[in-house]
């Protein structure tokens, strides 16, 4: 086990009480913030990035870019002198170049790429959420420092999409070395990036150790070492924080906030989150293929009571899949009120009686759902009152995500925090491409919704896009593939020694730029 006292005593060692173990260290293979925090947000960079603590796009590994007048081509000019990490298991012989960009995207795109099927070969973001197979025409290396993306059709949020985690740039040289050695899986287990921190070691369910990248292209981090102390229990994490054994807790219990704020050595930062928590019905399974059943179970849930019990003042009822702070939100939508009589009538109309089902409950705290088990228990009781018997199911976080992606569930509690500030990012959780890839946990494919979604993405005028997205939200609400539960306020509890940690509106935990005062 990690000796927290000795680690925290070291100068400039930041200890983060992370909420769970990552699924792995290649962000293209995963969708969880837990895995992104451990990989893309600290080990890697992207061509363009979001400014720390904001949704503003800034240059990353590309120092500049041009977009053609027709919106179909994007030409990126790479920074010179960018070094990949030098570790005990890899020594780079060259700087970042266009080959690394092509490798990072083609691995996800091309079925005949030597790494396409390595480590499972599932790319939910690339294939589903951002639908790149339907968008990309070609990616070309113009020269060592220039890459051109050509699109099949205009894509309004394209620049924002390549700023998110799946688009992290990897070392093609390291990948080839692992392939030549016959150990390509190590590429995904022992990561090499260009980011501010480099990977040192990982012990599942215990810790991840990093050290500062001395050659980081944007300047060395103020911190010397970074440790993720994996602490799924929020109460235990709070105890570690109070004892000085970690510096930051990402998802403190609402009940602990008052005592944290009363502690002169601690502080709490809060921000309204760009997120939504939901329960998805597996629409490929009967009787959830019938929208009357889905509507009935919406009516059966006492959402306000659930939010009061689970969020304890830090959440508000969600009626749309978009958060209300995001442009394109449809204010006119009416939510399903709590109406058990209506629920029973709809179930009877659909010919459903004595229904037995499941409710999958996440094993980890997330900003959009701080206590999934408790939420599941309350939903279970509400559904029992209308004659539906539901078994609560839970499992390890990585397995939970993997099996729900495959559609093993009847209903599943999940949620989303924005990757980029565009309605496309939330509604892509419900499109047909995402249903095929498994990212759409409702496995819902509706032509009317999909046509609107695909129409909006090629329109550049925000007002026209808003009109289309409002129509798409109306279709969603009528069809009810989800119960939209809540949008939450995000809290971060930290030591007063922490300098310049910024809450990420897109949900990440970025430690470059953070310092510790003596």
Structure description:
The protein is of the alpha+beta class. Helix content is 30%, strand content 21%. It is built from 18 helices and 20 strands. The strands form 6 sheets. Strands 11, 12, 13, 14, 17 and 18 form a 6-stranded antiparallel beta sheet that branches. A 4-stranded mixed beta sheet has the order 1-10-9-8. The radius of gyration is 23 Å and the shape is globular. The two termini are 27 Å apart.
Secondary structure tally: strands:
20
Strand content: 15-25%
Q: Approximately how much helix is present in the residues?
A: 25-40%
The major β-sheet equals: 6 strands, antiparallel
Helical segment tally? 18
Low-confidence stretches are: 1-9
Inertia-based shape: globular
**What is the overall pLDDT average?**
95
- CA radius of gyration is 23 Å
**End-to-end gap:** 27 Å
**Structure class:** alpha+beta
What's the quick description here?
The chain is of the alpha+beta class and 518 residues long.
What brief labels describe this structure?
518 residues, alpha+beta, six-stranded antiparallel β-sheet, four-stranded mixed β-sheet, 20 strands, disordered N terminus
SSE inventory with pairings:
Layout: H1 4-9, E1 13-16, H2 33-38, E2 48-50, E3 57-59, E4 62-67, E5 73-78, H3 98-109, H4 124-129, E6 136-143, E7 146-151, H5 158-161, H6 172-180, H7 186-189, E8 197-203, E9 207-212, E10 225-229, H8 234-242, E11 248-249, H9 257-262, E12 266-272, E13 275-281, H10 291-299, H11 303-311, E14 315-317, H12 340-349, E15 355-360, H13 372-384, E16 388-393, H14 397-406, E17 411-417, H15 423-427, H16 432-437, H17 447-457, H18 462-479, E18 482-495, E19 498-499, E20 515-516
Parallel strand pairs: 1-10, 15-16
Antiparallel strand pairs: 2-3, 4-5, 5-7, 6-7, 8-9, 9-10, 11-18, 12-18, 13-17, 13-18, 14-18, 19-20
């Amino acid at each position: 086990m990690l000796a927290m006292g000795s680690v925290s005593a070291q100068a400039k060692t930041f200890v983060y009480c992370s909420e769970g173990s990552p699924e792995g260290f290649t962000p293209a293979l995963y969708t969880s913030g837990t895995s992104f925090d451990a990989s893309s947000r600290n080990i890697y960079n992207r061509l363009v990035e979001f400014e720390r603590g904001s949704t503003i796009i800034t240059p990353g590994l590309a120092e500049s870019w041009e977009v053609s007048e027709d919106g179909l081509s994007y030409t990126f000019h790479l920074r010179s002198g960018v070094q990949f990490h030098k570790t005990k298991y890899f020594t780079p012989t060259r700087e970042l170049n266009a080959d690394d960009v092509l490798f990072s995207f083609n691995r996800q795109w091309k079925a005949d790429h030597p790494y396409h099927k390595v480590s499972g070969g599932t790319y939910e973001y690339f294939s589903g959420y951002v639908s790149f197979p339907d968008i990309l025409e070609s990616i070309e290396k113009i020269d060592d420092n220039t890459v051109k993306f050509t699109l099949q059709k205009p894509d309004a949020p394209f620049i924002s999409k390549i700023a998110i985690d799946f688009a992290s740039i990897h070392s093609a040289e390291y990948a080839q070395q692992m392939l030549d050695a016959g150990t390509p899986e190590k590429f995904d287990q022992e990561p090499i990036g260009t980011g501010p921190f480099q990977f040192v070691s990982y012990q599942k369910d215990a810790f991840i150790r990093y050290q500062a990248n001395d050659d980081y292209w944007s300047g060395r981090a103020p911190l010397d070492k970074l440790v993720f102390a994996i602490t799924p229990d929020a109460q235990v994490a709070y105890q570690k924080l109070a004892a000085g054994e970690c510096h930051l807790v990402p998802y403190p219990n609402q009940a602990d906030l008052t005592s944290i704020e009363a502690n002169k050595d601690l502080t709490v930062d809060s921000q309204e989150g760009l997120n939504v928590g939901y329960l998805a019905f597996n629409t490929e399974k009967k009787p959830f293929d019938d929208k009357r059943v889905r509507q009935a179970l919406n009516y059966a849930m006492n959402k306000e009571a659930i939010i009061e019990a689970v969020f304890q003042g830090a959440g508000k009822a969600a009626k749309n899949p978009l958060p209300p702070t995001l442009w394109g939100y449809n204010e006119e939508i009416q939510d399903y009120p709590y109406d058990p009589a209506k629920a029973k009538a709809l179930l009877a109309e659909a010919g459903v009686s004595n229904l037995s089902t499941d409710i999958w409950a996440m094993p980890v705290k997330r900003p959009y759902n701080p206590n999934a088990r408790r939420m599941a228990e309350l939903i279970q009781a509400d559904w029992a009152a209308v004659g539906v018997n539901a078994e609560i199911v839970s499992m390890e976080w990585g397995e939970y995500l993997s099996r729900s992606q495959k559609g093993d569930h009847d209903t599943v509690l999940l949620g989303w925090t924005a990757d980029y500030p565009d309605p496309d990012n939330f509604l892509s959780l419900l499109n047909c491409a995402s249903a095929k890839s498994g990212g759409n946990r409702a496995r819902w494919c509706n032509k009317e919704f999909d046509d609107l979604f695909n129409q909006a993405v090629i329109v550049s005028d925000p007002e026209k896009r808003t009109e289309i997205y409002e129509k798409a939200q109306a279709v969603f609400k009528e069809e009810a593939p989800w119960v939209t539960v809540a949008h939450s306020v995000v809290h971060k509890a930290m030591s007063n020694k922490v300098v310049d940690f910024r809450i990420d509106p897109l949900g990440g935990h970025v430690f470059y730029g953070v310092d510790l005062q003596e």
